[in-house]
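Problem: given the chain below (229 residues), write out its structure.
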Amino acid sequence: MTHPLDRPVWSALTSRQAHLAVGGKRARRFAPGYGIFAAVAADSPESWAALKAINPPDGGLMLMEVTDIDLPPDVPVAQHGLGVQMVADAITPGGPEPDFIELGDADAAEMLALATLTQPGPFFESTHRLGGFIGVRIDGRLAAMAGERMKPEGFTEVSGVCTHPDFRGRGLGAALSRVVANRILARGETPFLHAWHDNAAAIGLYERLGFRLRTKVNVAVLGPAEVAV
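Solution.
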């Protein structure tokens, strides 16, 4: 049996986050505004055709699988990448929790601006609604945040972890990640996350928090839809 985290996007969009899915039984993506992650049900011509049908005209959908992503020639590819997937059974103790706040719709514009500046991963105008986002404000400014993203059965992804350059070096990202991960554990779920395989700084941070490498993951970004002429 395939582990839910081997195909995290499909696992999430066919279970706890099915209400956020666009597509059908052969291919699904997160609704626009929430994210660009997508997946197919199987490696079949019918599934790849369904994926092409929900790929935006400008492309950009992102696939993430543990196994190799062998796209057929008629599916446009803009980029291939390699990441790591990490999980935690427990989180290492830290210092006092930061004076954090719950983030929501009222903070959406600032959250999007912070993510656009720092590039923690795909983040759009409704990504904060995936849940669990908390942040730290300093002098009225959103200095750092962290939250949740994909939610397969029994698992929740820690994501959107970022700190404004003006406030780095204070351990805010680590502290907020610790809070988010501990909340996930308290619900009886396993926290997991993704990072690029060559992002040694991020991987080292998460290892210090108690995350361990589960597997490498393959990433593919679709290019623009082909236009018949």
